[in-house]
Amino acid sequence: MMAAFSASLIFACSSDPEVVEVVKEVIVEKEVEKIVEVPVEKIVEKIVTESVPQPVGYMMEAPENVTNTGGTLKTAFGVTMGHFDAHQGAGTHVLGHAYDGLHVKNIADGLRTFAPLLATEWDIAADGKSYTFTIRDGVKFHDGSDLTVEDVVTSFSRMALPQDGFVSPNASFYDVVTSIEKVGDNQVKFSLSEPRTWLLEVMSGTSHVVYSKAQIDANDNNLKGVEIATGTGPFKFNEHMPAEKWVFDKNENYWSPNTPYIDRLEMLHVPAWTDRGTAVLTGQADFSWNISMETHNEANTRNDVTSLKIPGFGAYNANFNNKKAPFDDARVRKAIFLTVSKQGLHAAFSRNEPMKLTGWMSYAAEGATSIEDLGKLPGYREDKTADIAEAKKLMAAAGHPDGFGPIDLVVSSVAPHSEILAPFFADELEKIGITSKIRVIERSQLGQNALAGEYDIQVTTAFGSPTQDPTPMWMQRLTCDGSQNQVHYCNPEFDKMVATLNVTSDPGDRADLFAKAKAFLDEENPLYTIGFTNHLPAWRNYVKGMAMEQRSHTHWGELTTVWLDR
Questions:
Q1: pTM attached to this predicted model
Q2: CA–CA dist 298, 37 (Å, integer)
Q3: What one-character DSSP code corresponds to residue 89?
């Protein structure tokens, strides 16, 4: 059965720790065992759990007794990217293996706590307005240079306090950070203007890595073209064959004495879900973060492969270009929201990736409306008769009684996206007279295309949260100054709601605020949420060290603790 995830991870870790527990209700799915030919059924329930702080000196290792080391792990998922700078949005599900952050969600216990990386311990002030990290001694970069506190300060300043036109996708998460400075010989202090209960969890993400200050300076603060910048991580860069694979070798001088366990990490570029699943089923790959539903079902009939269904905090969505007419009119956006069938999209895509009926957050998020209740609401309900009638009235009121088009409907070159989702979306738009011309671009270019506003509607996967609290996602994606506001939406009233959520801790008050924000977004519709996903990781049964059965949410990234039982 799937274990419970604690939304309250470690908020302090020191020799005399002051631990601030923020315990939340979290929706967690549990597996129900059935005959193997039948897809796994789920039960959703609410539970309350507590976090357990790790002792000083703790090193993240495999949860099992490791009986074999060495070998090569081959993975199968998409590994292309437009550039190589993690702080500017490069793919850290790949590059992150060469780097370390300050701390990480603990693989060994199913992501229930934090494990230290370059920070050996940390302390959060009683008022929540300062975070002080003690930096590990004796760490070396792959080029042989020593890690310093200045490297940490420079790296996080790039993300949190960007200057001179530097574009940091993570900047919104650090909106209340006023300074990052060295304290003493081995500490870094983050000062905040107000508390952020979710900041430590956000900072554990795979993109919040530490680079060499010397290399940042040598490249004028731009590492996009450096393949790849030196890191301190468990694996060292070996080879990159574009659109084919990345190869990393074990860092023999890694600061953690027992990890990594494998000698080589070979990451194959396999963009299609069915091909990923087939690669694992046939032994061409050992592991994939996400496969198709049909290969997931096939895996569940086998005794040599395992595949699970794990909730995600990321969604498929359609970006609306809110700065471009007629999508700058909330009536047009709401008409599309009312018209396009979420259930139809889910059914059309069901063989590739399962999605849940969701609104402005994952169904497993704090503040989420139950799937049953959501299905009764306009825009979410399956029967579209009344919704389309209302949509036509809105279109007429907006001056488009006969529709408009053709619009520029942009989608990635990933086949299920361009061949299923985009055509279905276009067909749905025609119900209110909107015609489309579908334009296919490389997936790695979607973010740049969106931020530049070079689209009318863009089918993408850009709406996701780093935490079970959706507020960071809303800040980054939907507020006026959001660092990844790809839809160019700005409404001060919504910004105020998000700001209030960030300083509100009472559960009842938060529930009221979430309800108000969801209702507001259902009227404004800055984008269209197709659905938050379940991911379907799969692996050969000799792949150990991941505690996948204990995870209550997806987390692409670290493979540091993997070992091969063969």
A1: 0.84
A2: 8
A3: T
